[in-house]
Amino acid sequence: MDKKKAIVVKNLKKYFKSVKAVDDISFDVNYGELFALLGQNGAGKSTTIRILTNLAVPTSGYIEVAGYNVLKDPTNVRKNIGLVAEKIILYDNLTAMENIEFFGRLYGMKDTVIEENAQKFLKLFDIWDFKDMLISKMSTGMKQKINLARALVPDPQIIFLDEPTLGLDPVSTKHIRDFIVGLRGEGRTIVYTTHVLHDIELMNVDKVAIMRKGKIVSIGSLSDIKKHFKKAEIVEIETDRMLSPNEVKGKILDQDDGYMKIEVEDLNQFMKDISKLNVQIRSFKSLEPSLEDIYVEISEGNDVEEQSKMVNVKE
Amino acid sequence: MSIWDIAWKDLKTFLRGKTRVIFSILMPIIMMLMLGFIFPKTGGSYSGNIGIYSQDLIFNAKVEKLLPATATNKMIFYNSKQDLIDALASGKIMVGAVIPKDFSLSIALNRPVTMDVIPSPANPQAGIMMGQMLVGMFGQEGASNVKQNVQSNLINADGTPFNYYDFTVPGLMAMIAIMSVMTGLASAITRERELGTLDGVMVTPISRGSIVIGKVLAQTIRGFVTAMIILAISWLFFGVHFTGISLLWTIFLLLLGTFSFIGVGVMITAAMKEQETAMITMTTITFPMMFFSGVFFPIQQMPQMMQYIAYIFPLTYAADALRNVITLNVGWNFIWLDVVILAGFAVVTSLVATFTFQKLTQD
Ligand SMILES: Nc1ncnc2c1ncn2[C@@H]1O[C@H](COP(=O)(O)OP(=O)(O)O)[C@@H](O)[C@H]1O
Ligand SMILES: [Mg+2]
Question: Which residue is closest to B191 within chain A, CA to CA?
Answer without folding.
Answer: A91
